Amino acid sequence: MTVPVRGKAVVLPRSKPFMPDFVFFEPKALDYELGDTLYRKFRDMEIPIKITPSHNRVTGIPGDTPAQAYRNAKNTLVVGIKKSMDLETSKPSADYSLPPATGCMGHCHYCYLQTTMGRKPYIRVYVNIDEILATAEKYMERRAPQITTFEAACSSDPVGVEHLTGSLKKMINFFGRQQLGRLRFVTKYAHVDSLLDAQHSKHTRFRFSVNSEYVIKNFEPGTSYFHERVEAAGKVARAGYPLGFIVAPIMIYEGWEKGYRELFQRLAGVLVPEAKQDLTFELIQHRFTATAKKVILERYPKTKLDMDETKRKYKWGKYGRGKWVYPDEQAQLLKDTISDLIATYFPEAKIEYFT
After folding, report:
1. Stretch (H or E) spanning 161
2. b/e map 145-176, b = 16+ CB within 10 Å
């Protein structure tokens, strides 16, 4: 992508698709076609490969310090099978979670996975995708004649590994044939070209996690750039997918109103009219827990993330635990400002929730 700057064409940078530095295989993964294909691929690329009895017994990820081990884990791929076929609920996004992968290669400072993926948050991909889809079919049969929705990105960014596995396209094609099933996922990656010709039949809602350029630049290293996501959203819209955007985490910083206005202006400029008629937004304000703050500062000690509890309100959650959110007045300002921008640029869009 090029943009004019004072009469000169400037080529904007491009993010590269993820490629692991280290790969572990569960033995049974090699019994599947995808597992065998990935093994041969990484072997031919001379990427270090080890066999591990199970993903939770991975050892040998290098790192002299916890921070080094964390960074190296983010560049580690574990290829295995999904054993449990008891699908977890996934409210408010969908009825059930249906992940083709877990973990993420991004380094978003604020991410909730900071406290749920442990000290070595490697990325896992599942090679038994046909068994996963067969399970989804059983869940749909139980709930018939209701439509059952499945979220593919509860614990991962499936687009981030799609160029390696092709599993997400297989899922999209599968749900394109289902009368009683719908698929949803969200991504921060712009590598969507392989998904544009999928036979989705409008049964998959393709969502992008978006934010102002300031937030993406300062707090989302390892993900696709602002301009790439906007461009990718335009491609997906032209491919006829139902489209959605998660604006998260919405932050207050100097010039935030201008930054978010630019976001919506840019999105409005790339979306075809049909996409604007069936468009959803999910709005999430920035929040953090005491545990998350400690972990984030260990891993990203130079972060600009504002986690000053004196500027926040403590919101109690389930099981006696809570999080720091914006005070009511600021939260309402965020909600009103973003809602007004959506109404201005996408008057037919639906805001599913603000939290």
Report:
1. helix 159-165
2. eeebbbbbbbbbbbbbbbebbbbbbbbbbbbb
Under 8 Å between Cβ of 316 and 280: no
Cα–Cα distance measured from residue 24 to residue 3, given in angstroms and rounded to the nearest whole number: 41
Instruction: Please name which of 67, 35, 66, 63 lies closest in space to residue 49, comparing C-alpha atoms.
Output: 35
Amino acid of residue 272: V
Pick the more confident residue, 70 or 348: 348
Domain boundaries, position 210: 82-354
**Distance between CA atoms of 314 and 111, rounded to whole angstroms?**
19
Asked whether the beta carbons of 95 and 148 are under 8 A apart, the reply is: yes
303 within some domain: yes
In Å, what is the CA distance from 201 to each residue of 176, 182, 253? 5, 10, 41
Q: Residue type at 78? A: V
DSSP 8-state symbol, 12: P
pLDDT in tens, 70-111: 889 999 999 999 999 999 999 888 999 999 999 999 999 998
- Spatial neighbors of 319 by CB under 8 A, at least 6 apart, are none
Q: Are strands 101-102 and 123-126 parallel, antiparallel or unpaired?
A: antiparallel
At 94, is the secondary structure helix, strand, or coil? strand
Determine the 3-state secondary structure of 145 from DSSP. Answer: coil
Residues 6+ positions from 173 with CB-CB distance below 8 Å: 198, 199, 200
Tokens encoding 256: 């935030």
- Please check whether residue 233 lies inside any domain of the structure: yes
Burial (CB count within 10 angstroms: exposed 0-12, middle 13-18, buried 19+), residue 297: middle
Instruction: Domain count for the chain, please give it.
Output: 1
Q: Model's pTM, two decimal places? A: 0.92
